[in-house]
Amino acid sequence: MGLKILLAKVNGISIEDELPQEDGKYLIITPDGYIKLIQYYEHHGGTFFGGVIATHWMPLPKPPTQ
């Protein structure tokens, strides 16, 4: 699967529109198109761990139930 197809299927939220409301792990998309799992710290001024720059983010999908 090509990156453009994968990105089209990921419904990320633009960081310009909204940031996560609580600390936790999130999937982010970087300016160069990489998708990363990263820790977010709302109580540290709304930053992603390690100063990673993101353009979009989304919560992790729920794990399978079976």
Structural write-up:
The chain is mainly β and 66 residues long. The chain is built from one helix and five strands. A five-stranded antiparallel beta sheet has the order 1-5-2-3-4, with no helix packed on it. β3 (35-41) and β4 (47-48) form a beta hairpin. The longest helix is centred in the first third of the chain and has 7 residues, at 3-9. It is globular, with a radius of gyration of 12 Å. The N and C termini lie far apart (26 Å).
Distance between the termini: 26 Å
Overall spatial form: globular
Q: What is the succession of H and E elements? A: HEEEEE
Q: What about the largest sheet?
A: 5 strands, antiparallel
Q: Helix fraction?
A: 10-25%
Oligomer: single chain
Q: Which consecutive residue ranges, at least 5 long each, have pLDDT under 50?
A: none
**In order across it, which strands form the biggest sheet?**
1-5-2-3-4
C-alpha Rg (nearest Å): 12 Å
Mean pLDDT: 77
Number of separate strands: 5
Structural class: mainly beta
Task: Write out key terms for the chains shown.
1 helix, 66 residues, mainly beta, five-stranded antiparallel beta sheet
